[in-house]
Amino acid sequence: MNISAVLDTISDFVWGPPFLILLVGTGIYLTLRLTFLQFRTLPYALKLVFTKDQDKQSEGDISHFQSLMTALAATVGTGNIAGVATAVVVGGPGAVFWMWISALFGMATKYAEAILAVKYRVKDERGEMAGGPMYYIEKGLGWKWLAVLFAIFAIGASFGIGNTVQSNSVADVLHENWNFPYAATGIILMILTGIVIIGGIKSIGRVVSFIVPIMAVLYVAAGLILIMMNIDLVPSAVGLIFTDAFTGQAVAGGAIGAVIQMGVARGVFSNEAGLGSAPIAAASARTDYPGRQALVSMTQVFIDTIIICSITGISLVMGELYLNAQSDVEGAALTSNTFEQFLGPAGAFIVSIGLVFFAYSTMLGWSYYGERCMYYLTKHPSSIMIYRIIFVIAIFFGAVIELNMVWSIADIMNGLMAAPNLIGLLGLSSVVVAETAFFLQRKKEEEQKRAPERE
Fold first, then answer.
1. Which 3 state secondary structure label does DSSP give 249?
2. Whether the Cβ atoms of residue 267 and residue 106 lie closer than 8 Å to each other
3. Cα(305)–Cα(362) distance, integer angstroms
4. Fewer CB within 10 A of the terminal residue: the chain, N end or C end?
5. DSSP sequence for 92-139
6. CA pair distance 422, 424, nearest whole angstrom
């Protein structure tokens, strides 16, 4: 048995029924305990995202918006373009449906992660906020050993999902489209990433707040134009997504389990709900109440999966190129070919450039997650610089080395870091409910005070 087969076996085990039940089950459980909060408060949460920062006097390093953009930077990447395509090829159109389901419940998971991250955050030796699963697992549950495991797995994941996967995808797309040398891509990415992460979270927040909105809007606009120009294909494509979700006919052997597994796994790879990564960014935000930042963080899943991944998924099913996809044209190439089929060379160009900037911003976001976990383990500020140097070097190797097994490695690391986080969320669910009730009461009082002013 070769290494690739061993990794695939481990990945299948990690993402087997028990873990999927824990992952989605946690989202369902939190949704019920929070009485469907993600649906009731979504309009207000989206309004908060684009409201000018009103918490400048509150503790924190960056604004609500910058915190969200850092989290989005880390999630909007190859998962939205290559990951969705892989899910459709391997799991069939029905995988898109299960991505939606995991995202809808994942919004509650993401909310819980953020509210705990802000509640249990601490100030480090440099005066910056430090928070995330490692802190709420240790301080909330009192299980230091589990917190340490999360930090170790998260550092490992930062070099997979947050580094080599991204640089390898950028190098591939630049080489295939413009014959750009792999080594040159690696060197350029090293320099551009190093320049930004040397300044820490404030520098990262500024850069991603500029890059992410522009690229997300450009990609979404192109996708919507594609869909509107071929609106007659949409009903049958959406219908196939729903029917295949429960039949699995598009998958070899009609295995419905494969459809669900690919949909949930790729959905989590894209939006990271339950992984415990995004709350590390949420902990750095300036906010008066944990609940307010948690609502902002919750919108990340909605934007990432319900909007961006849906556009990719529906376009892929409309194009039907996945039916004849071979292993060498899966992923980003399949999405690029689909956009080119409908929009011509401009479509392929948008996907290619979008992937480059999405992947770059993902590396910036994940570098922060990794360094925070490194600091948690060592408690020495000097370890942050050591981590940054190693992280930047790894970018080059990711760009020049063949990484055929990288998706399996990334999936394994995602599962390993998610497990401690999900245990922490379930164990601290009562804290989440209590903090939510407190915030909603304060929100109600604020609205009552403003009511006479409007009159």
1. coil
2. yes
3. 15
4. C
5. -THHHHHHHHHHHHHHHHHHHHHHHHHHT-EE-TTS-EE-SHHHHIII
6. 5
Per-residue pLDDT tens listing for the chain (455 residues)? 577 788 878 877 877 778 888 888 999 999 999 999 999 999 999 888 877 655 555 665 567 677 777 777 777 777 788 778 888 887 888 889 999 998 999 999 999 999 999 999 998 877 778 899 999 999 999 999 999 999 999 998 899 888 988 888 888 888 877 889 999 999 999 999 999 998 888 888 888 888 888 888 899 999 999 999 999 999 999 999 998 888 766 554 446 677 777 788 778 777 888 889 889 988 888 888 889 889 988 998 998 889 999 999 999 999 988 887 665 446 777 888 899 999 999 998 988 888 888 889 889 989 999 999 999 999 888 899 999 999 999 999 888 887 666 667 777 887 889 999 999 999 999 999 999 999 999 888 887 877 665 55
Report whether 162 contacts 366 (CB < 8 A): yes
Between CA 245 and CA 377 the distance in angstroms is: 42
Structure token digits, residue 104: 């809808």
Q: Report the distance separating Cα 452 and Cα 56, nearest Å.
A: 25
Rounded to whole angstroms, how far apart are CA atoms 98 and 95? Answer: 5
Strand partners, 285: 62
- 152, 171 in Cβ contact below 8 A? no
With a CB cutoff of 8 Å and minimum separation 6, the contacts of 442 are 289
* The one-letter amino acid at 334: L
Report the distance separating Cα 174 and Cα 180, nearest Å. 5
- Please report the domains of the chain, with CATH numbers, ordered by start residue: 11-446 (1.20.1740.10)
- Residues 6 or more apart whose CB falls under 8 angstroms from that of 167 comprise 185, 186, 189, 359, 363, 395, 396, 398, 399
**Cα distances (Å, whole numbers) of residue 159 to 12, 69, 155, 366:** 21, 20, 7, 8
Closest CA to 364 of 40, 30, 72, 107: 72
Q: Global pTM?
A: 0.89
The dihedrals phi and psi of 122, each to the nearest 5 degrees, come to: -130, 170
Beta-carbon neighbour count of residue 401 at 10 Å?
Answer: 15
> Is 157 within 8 Å of 417 (Cβ atoms)?
yes
